[in-house]
């Protein structure tokens, strides 16, 4: 039995007469029992017809009870003959019932005026089989899935028209019907399809929240014509955008319907909505997995390898890049459609990255595989390292989106270590450069370097060199070690960049200097955990707890030994 009440009968009659399908009738009656929508549509329609006939049958019974009383009166008082033959009340009611049945049966095979077939033939086992076939063909790795539905914007207009139509009847009966209480077409579609898809996928649950999403889209050729009047009535709601093919988006249509009055709506649009000859058309089913985030550290040992693909004026300058050498094996392993690469800072093409490695992170877009064990991640790391001698990756791991975003936090406050091989024009001795060891917290004013002026805004940036140390090589060369604030232009500090960096090494040594080689030394940072063997290193609090437990165990072991 459908969970309908006596007050729903006039609404059901009105909606069926208007050309609504059985499931849309349930929606407007605010039926939230999912099982009612999963029932076959023709069975639901029959129950709705029976539900209406109960009302008419009650009228018949009332008429039958009144008839004997009228018969007695006719025996005592003779009525004058009537020119027209009287119709028996029971026959009149029966004719009304038959008419109602004929209306509903007539509408059973037509396209619903509200959902345009979405909750009719497009919502059943055949559609579930297509969804399952697509999901299986794309070979995703998942435990659950969420079903998303994209509907043509005109359904909002048609639903509003039907709601205005029903609202008249509701007000006449002294009832209250809130538009927000009407079950959405999307919800009803999902309620019907969830169980069907689960059976097709052999038990995979269709849930409300999952990293794997299956999208079903429907379109209709008459969307523009159905919504066109709204653009005239509410032009401010419809603004053309670059990425949208049509201005009649769902959000824009809903916004316009909230603004327009019922009277103005009825002037431009039929109520109830008119019939359509064709139903909606299902588009290609789309599968999408949420992004997976990978983090680690890399060392770069080559002085002719850019961090990212180096393209100038549309022409590629280098064969490969750090980004591509790392990404290729990872994309293959996760079977992802694409990626976004980011790192904590960047080095020039001729700069090596040594030490513990520069932290990097990758967002893998639509990965078909998303679960990797620590052993598998270690194997993937070894695959990357074997693919090229120019780079080496360590601490490769799956992280959260939040961990990826933290990588960029506080970059300006970080301290970086560098080693530079410096050439001097003037002949030098060890004593000439030893004073550099005593310089602490030297503040630089660095105007945007000429070499990056094409991509960075012209500005003067203050940076601090915290400390320096020198190692004499010969009369024209020495190694310069620096600990600086992140973002310091080391090359410009050494050669001065035509006076754009002040002070600079040329001024300190009173001779022209230039940089021949530069290495950046990267230390451990908190947002990328160090991997030791197959285990991630523990956070500080956990390490303290383990240390305390270890000491307690040693204490008790010591006591046991003493007793023995």
UniProtKB/TrEMBL annotation:
Domain Pus10-like C-terminal: 293-521
The Pus10 N-terminal eukaryotes domain, residue ranges: 112-287
Pfam family for this entry, one: Pus10_C
GO MF term list: metal ion binding; RNA binding; tRNA pseudouridine(55) synthase activity
Compartments it resides in: Cytoplasm; Mitochondrion; Nucleus
InterPro entries, A to Z: PsdUridine_synth_cat_dom_sf (IPR020103), Pus10-like (IPR039894), Pus10-like_C (IPR048741), Pus10_N_euk (IPR048742)
Superkingdom per UniProt: Eukaryota
GO cellular component term, pick one: nucleus
EC id: 5.4.99.25
Signal peptide location: none
Keywords, sorted A to Z: Coiled coil, Cytoplasm, Isomerase, Metal-binding, Mitochondrion, Nucleus, tRNA processing, Zinc
GO biological process, one term: tRNA pseudouridine synthesis
Catalytic activity reported: uridine(54) in tRNA = pseudouridine(54) in tRNA; uridine(55) in tRNA = pseudouridine(55) in tRNA
Family under the similarity heading: Belongs to the pseudouridine synthase Pus10 family.
Name of the featured protein: tRNA pseudouridine synthase Pus10
Taxonomic source organism: Poecilia reticulata (Guppy)
């Amino acid at each position: 039995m459908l969970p309908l009440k006596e007050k729903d009968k006039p609404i059901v009659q009105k909606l069926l007469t208007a050309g609504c399908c059985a499931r849309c009738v349930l929606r407007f009656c605010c039926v939230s029992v999912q099982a009612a929508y999963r029932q076959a549509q023709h069975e639901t329609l029959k129950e709705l017809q029976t539900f209406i006939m109960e009302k008419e049958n009650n009228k018949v019974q009332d008429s039958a009870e009144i008839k004997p009383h009228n018969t007695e009166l006719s025996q005592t008082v003779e009525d004058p003959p009537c020119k027209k033959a009287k119709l028996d009340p029971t026959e009149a009611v029966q004719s009304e019932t038959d008419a109602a049945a004929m209306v509903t049966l007539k509408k059973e095979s037509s396209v619903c005026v509200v959902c345009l077939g979405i909750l009719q033939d497009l919502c059943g086992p055949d559609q579930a089989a297509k969804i399952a076939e697509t999901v299986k063909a794309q070979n995703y790795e998942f435990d659950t899935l969420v079903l998303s539905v994209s509907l043509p914007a005109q359904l909002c207009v048609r639903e509003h028209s039907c709601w205005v139509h029903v609202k008249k009847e509701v007000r006449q009966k002294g009832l209250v019907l809130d538009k927000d209480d009407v079950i959405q077409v999307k919800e009803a579609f999902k309620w019907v399809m969830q169980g069907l898809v689960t059976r097709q996928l052999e038990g995979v649950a269709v849930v409300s929240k999952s990293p794997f999403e299956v999208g079903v889209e429907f379109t209709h050729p008459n969307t523009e014509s159905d919504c066109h009047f709204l653009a005239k009535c509410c032009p401010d709601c419809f603004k053309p955008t670059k990425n949208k093919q049509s201005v009649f988006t769902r959000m824009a249509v809903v916004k316009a319907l909230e603004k327009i009055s019922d009277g103005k709506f009825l002037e431009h649009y039929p109520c109830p909505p008119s019939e359509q000859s064709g139903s909606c058309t299902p588009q290609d089913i789309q599968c999408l997995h949420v992004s997976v985030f990978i983090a680690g550290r890399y060392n770069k040992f080559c002085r002719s390898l850019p961090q990212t693909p180096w393209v100038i004026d549309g022409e590629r300058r280098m064969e490969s890049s750090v980004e591509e050498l790392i990404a290729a094996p990872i994309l293959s392993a996760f079977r992802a459609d694409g990626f976004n690469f980011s790192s904590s800072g960047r080095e020039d093409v001729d700069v090596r990255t040594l030490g513990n490695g520069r932290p990097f992170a990758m967002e893998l877009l639509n990965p078909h595989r998303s679960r990797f064990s620590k052993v598998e991640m270690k194997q993937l790391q070894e695959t990357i390292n074997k693919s090229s001698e120019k780079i080496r990756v360590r601490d490769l791991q799956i992280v959260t989106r939040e961990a990826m975003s933290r990588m960029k936090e506080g970059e300006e406050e970080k301290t970086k270590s560098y080693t530079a091989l410096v050439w001097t024009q003037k002949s030098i001795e060890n004593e000439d450069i030893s004073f550099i060891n005593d310089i602490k917290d030297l503040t630089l004013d660095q105007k945007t370097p000429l070499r990056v002026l094409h991509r960075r805004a012209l500005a003067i940036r203050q940076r601090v060199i915290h400390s320096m140390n020198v190692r004499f090589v010969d009369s024209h060369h020495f190694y310069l070690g620096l600990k600086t604030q992140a973002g310091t232009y080391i090359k410009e500090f050494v050669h001065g960049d035509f006076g754009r960096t002040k002070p600079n090494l040329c001024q300190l040594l009173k001779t022209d200097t230039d940089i021949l080689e530069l290495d950046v030394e990267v230390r451990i940072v908190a947002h990328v955990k160090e991997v030791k063997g197959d285990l991630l290193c523990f956070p500080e609090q956990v390490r303290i707890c383990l240390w305390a437990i270890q000491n307690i165990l040693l204490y008790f072991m010591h006591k046991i030994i003493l007793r023995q």
